[in-house]
Amino acid sequence: MFKFPKGSIVKHKSGEIRGEVINVFAQGDAAAGYYVKWDDGNIAIILSRI
What we know:
Elements: E1 9-11, E2 18-25, E3 33-38, E4 43-47
Antiparallel strand pairs: 1-2, 2-3, 3-4
């Protein structure tokens, strides 16, 4: 299971920038990966911690 569904608004750990979850990659019990588009235009893949 993943913590943030597609379309969620998230905050960078620095607290200075927000982003939107564009896609979620989840496979069984493995940590989920999030494809996030940040407000500054950058795109990142973030792995969640279990």
